[in-house]
Amino acid sequence: MGTMFYGDAATPIGIEDRALAHLKVAIITKLRRGESFTVSWKHADDQPSGRSTLWLHPNIPLRFVFDEPEPTELSRAWVEELMRSANSTGGILLVPEQLDTGPIATVEPLATGPGAEEPAP
Fold this sequence. Notes:
The chain is an alpha+beta fold. The chain has helices spanning 17-32, 76-86, and strands at 2-6, 13-15, 37-42, 51-56, 62-65, 92-93.
């Protein structure tokens, strides 16, 4: 479980390392542009029910702490989804990673040998 510290808030925000790594990229991209925005998330099962929203501003200190010593491999699709939400009026909505578990498309091998059709020029 990673941790995000924002401003002088005494309560750290616990976020799973992989999610925090993706969120970090989206947040840093926005802050580098000098843009202010919100980040919202649903509370974890071990916390009181509800949700939270932070207003992030480039002049407020922000720190990310990861439990895992090695950086995680990022999913371009998840970062892009977070960036789309960051650019909306609602700000970043931290959502679980959507893994594509559908069947993998296959390509039929080209026929070769006697009787195989030649590709059109």
